[in-house]
Specification:
- This protein is α+β, with helices and mostly antiparallel strands and 405 residues long.
- It has 2 domains: 224 residues, Ribosomal Protein S5, domain 2 (2-Layer Sandwich); 167 residues, GHMP kinase, C-terminal domain (Alpha-Beta Plaits), CATH 3.30.70.890.
- Helix content is 43%, strand content 22%.
- It has a 6-stranded mixed beta sheet with strand order 5-4-6-3-1-13, sandwiched between helices.
- Strand 4 and strand 5 form a beta hairpin.
- Helix 3 crosses helix 4, helix 7 packs across helix 10 and helix 12 packs across helix 13.
- The chain is globular, with a radius of gyration of 21 Å.
- The N terminus is likely disordered.
- The structure holds alpha-D-galactopyranose.
- Alpha-D-galactopyranose (GLA) binds next to helix 6.
């Protein structure tokens, strides 16, 4: 099933009007009041699901590589209450309409501006497929997570829905099981053949830590973020139409490399294997494989350098990751390249594009005391040079999606 063109998932959320409320975050009491104003009774369940950044390990999760994301303090919030009717009623903070209604008997895909609800429908359907006796519920969403910024708002929406289903039925899953169900929902209901990084990061975040995730074993090892280093996200506010279908094309190129190299996944290939097969692979597939294999090596070295306080190596590895994503994997764009160049000219520790690419955000490691001024300077320099606005903000690593007490 392919319901939303690849790469457009977060744009769909944005178009659907989940409020871009990071400038005016609501508190828990306001969110309860919002729910009551829509459904005329109090909610029973409150959940928060964070977005994620990725320090390094880009476009390697579906090749069973290593990634190093962290859940961040930007959230999708949901309040919900179980209902007797066999349907889900959904509302989000900017939808002034009456709630959308999804009959449980027919969780058929929605199109156009309502298609953001497919993330919810898909997760509910996947829990049902897994034997969970799903029930109807009312839900109201709010967000402090910028949508369409490559910060995994779709994975956050999926995780929030998963927790509501679990709270409503009493059938609880481990973070790993939850992530796998959400990934399956995204594949089937959103038509995005994503890897496991986003869902696992959103489900398993640990406050103050990045997560070293082995995308083969799905083992998650929290790694403390060193004191004195801040993470600045810069949202380019662009998402190029080119993104549609390009993600699946990259996966197909990797598959071609896997076949040609005779390995299970690119995780199993060495750079020597890839270089030795260069002629056989052809230029494009060679460059794709070179990116994946070299990026996995960078993740290992990055983790060591970060723990050892070797900021010079950290910065170099981020720079190499960006260059490889730009030149070998061809998933960057002029806006992201410009933002990385500006950040480097301001003397950050490291900067690179992040996530699927063709827009979205850059991730920047910055000395803590310089974080606010660097964030401001990046926006100012970009505005002066390109006459366009970007948004830069400091994020902190937080725990994964959970019920709110
Ligand atoms: C998107 C996907 C992830 C991952 C990244 C690139 O965010 O959802 O699974 O592949 O792109 O690293």
């Amino acid at each position: 099933m392919r319901l939303i063109p690849n790469g457009r998932a977060e744009k769909v959320l944005r178009d659907a009007g989940i409020r871009l409320s990071q400038k005016m975050p609501t508190n828990a009491a306001q969110r309860i009041a919002l729910f009551e104003s829509v459904y005329h009774r109090p909610p029973q369940i409150a959940v928060r699901a964070p977005g994620r950044i990725n320090l390094i390990g880009e476009h390697v999760d579906y090749e069973e590589g290593l990634v190093m994301p962290a859940a961040i303090d930007r959230y999708i919030f949901a309040n919900a209450a179980v209902i007797d009717e066999p349907e889900i009623r959904l509302w989000s903070a900017t939808c002034t309409r009456t709630p959308l209604r999804l009959p449980l008997a027919d969780l058929a895909p929605l199109h156009g501006t309502d298609s953001w609800a497919n993330y919810v429908a898909g997760v509910v359907a996947k829990y049902r497929d897994a034997g969970v006796p799903v029930r109807g519920f009312d839900v109201a969403f709010d967000a402090t997570l910028p949508l369409g910024a490559g910060l995994s708002s779709s994975a956050a929406l999926e995780a929030a829905t998963a927790l509501i289903v679990e709270a409503a039925t009493g059938f609880t899953k481990t973070p790993r099981e939850r992530a796998l169900l959400c990934q399956a929902a995204e594949h089937e209901y959103a038509g995005v053949p994503c890897g496991i990084m986003d869902q696992l990061a959103v489900a398993s975040g640990v406050k103050g830590h990045a997560l070293m995730i082995d995308c083969r074993s799905l083992e998650v090892t929290p790694s403390p973020l060193p004191e004195g280093i801040a993470v600045v996200v810069v949202d380019s506010r662009v998402k190029h139409a080119l993104a549609d279908g390009e993600y699946a094309k990259r996966k197909a190129d990797c598959e071609a490399a896997v076949q040609s190299l005779g390995v299970q996944r690119l995780r199993d290939a060495s750079l020597e294997n890839v270089h030795a097969a260069r002629d056989r692979l052809g230029d494009r597939v060679f460059r794709r494989a070179r990116h994946v294999v070299s990026e996995i090596g960078r993740v290992r070295r990055f983790a060591e350098a970060l723990q050892g306080g070797d900021v010079e190596t950290v910065g170099k590895l981020m720079a190499k990751s960006h260059t490889s994503l730009r030149d070998n994997y061809e998933v960057s764009c002029t806006e992201l390249d410009a933002l990385v160049a500006i950040a480097n000219s301001l003397g950050v520790i490291g900067a690179r594009m992040m996530g699927g690419g063709f827009g979205g955000s850059t991730v920047n490691l910055v000395r803590e005391e310089e974080a606010a001024s660097v964030a401001e300077a990046i926006c100012a320099r970009y505005r002066e040079t390109y006459g366009a606005e970007v948004e830069a903000f400091v994020v902190h690593a937080v725990d994964g999606a959970a019920l709110e007490s």
